[in-house]
Amino acid sequence: MQVLPIIALWLVYIVVGERLGGTLGHRLFKLKVVTMDGGQPDTWHTFLRRVCDPLDYFLCGLVGYLLIKNTPYNQRLGDIVAKTQVIGQDDTLEKVEFDFDRTTS
Known about the structure:
The protein is mainly alpha-helical and 105 residues long. The protein has six helices and two strands; from the N terminus they run H-H-E-H-H-H-H-E. The protein has helices at 3-19, 24-28, 43-51, 53-56, 58-70, 77-82, and strands at 31-35, 84-88. The chain has a two-stranded antiparallel sheet. Helix 1 (3-19) packs across helix 3. The radius of gyration is 16 Å and the shape is globular.
């Protein structure tokens, strides 16, 4: 039961921090979290990202490191699940559109 306040505080800090423009680490390194289409993540996206933190940090962060190094958008598990990515504050994403209906003749 002593762990519940720590978990609650952690979730509040992370979720509120990211909703207000980024956590302290993101602000220091001039990063921001965006959805895969470049939009502002909502509370659900933020929650999903953070639920995966224990798995990302497993084995001293090895899981997160391996995913970041080996995924096309350098995403950790939390970003993959939440469909978000971390980019520079001044960066923008160009929306990628796929034309699945196009056929080759």
